[in-house]
C-alpha cells in the first residue's frame, strides 16, 4: 500500500514529528508485521530518526547552520538562493525504512520520525509505502 501525506510547513527551517502520521497509515492498512518505507521527494527536505526533544532539535538546526551556512556564495544561489538547503539535505536522508511489529513502528523508546523542512514555508508531500512480510 502506498499513502501520500501532505505537510504544510510555516518556516524556512522546521522540524516536524511525523511518526503519528505513519502509525495512522499502519492502522488503516491493518498490517501487523512488515516494513514502512518513508520517502520525501523534495530536494530541500529530509528525514531522520532521533529523539523529539526541543533542545536536541534546536541543536540539529544549529549544527546544520554551522556546517552549511546560508549565503556563503554557493554557485546554485545564482538560480534561487537556496543552495544551503540542498546541501543540508545531502547530510540527512530522503528516505527511511522501519520495521513494523504488532501493527506499530519498531522504534526505540526515545526514537521518532522527524521530517525536516530546509527551504520553507511550502506544501510538501511524504510517501509512506507499507509492505506486509
UniProtKB/TrEMBL annotation:
Family according to the record: Belongs to the UPF0047 family.
Organism: Thermococcus sibiricus (strain DSM 12597 / MM 739)
Protein's UniProt name: YjbQ family protein
PROSITE patterns in the cross-refs: UPF0047
Entry-linked Gene3D superfamilies: YjbQ-like (2.60.120.460)
InterPro entries according to UniProt: UPF0047_YjbQ-like, YjbQ-like_sf
Matches recorded under SUPFAM superfamilies: YjbQ-like (SSF111038)
Pfam families: YjbQ (PF01894)
Signal sequence range: none
Amino acid at each position: 500500500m502506498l499513502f501520500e501525506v501532505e505537510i504544510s510547513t510555516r518556516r524556512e527551517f522546521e522540524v516536524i514529528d511525523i511518526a503519528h502520521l505513519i502509525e495512522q497509515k499502519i492502522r488503516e492498512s491493518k498490517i501487523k508485521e512488515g516494513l514502512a518505507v518513508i520517502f520525501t521527494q523534495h530536494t530541500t527536505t529530509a528525514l531522520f530518526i532521533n529523539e523529539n526533544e526541543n533542545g536536541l532539535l534546536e541543536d540539529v538546526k544549529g549544527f546544520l547552520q554551522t556546517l552549511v551556512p546560508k549565503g556563503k556564495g554557493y554557485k546554485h544561489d545564482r538560480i534561487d538562493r537556496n543552495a544551503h538547503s540542498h546541501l543540508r539535505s545531502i547530510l540527512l536522508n530522503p528516505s527511511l525504512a522501519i520495521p513494523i511489529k504488532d501493527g506499530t513502528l519498531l522504534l526505540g523508546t526515545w526514537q521518532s520520525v522527524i521530517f525536516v523542512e530546509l527551504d520553507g514555508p511550502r506544501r510538501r508531500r511524504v510517501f509512506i509505502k507499507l509492505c506486509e512480510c
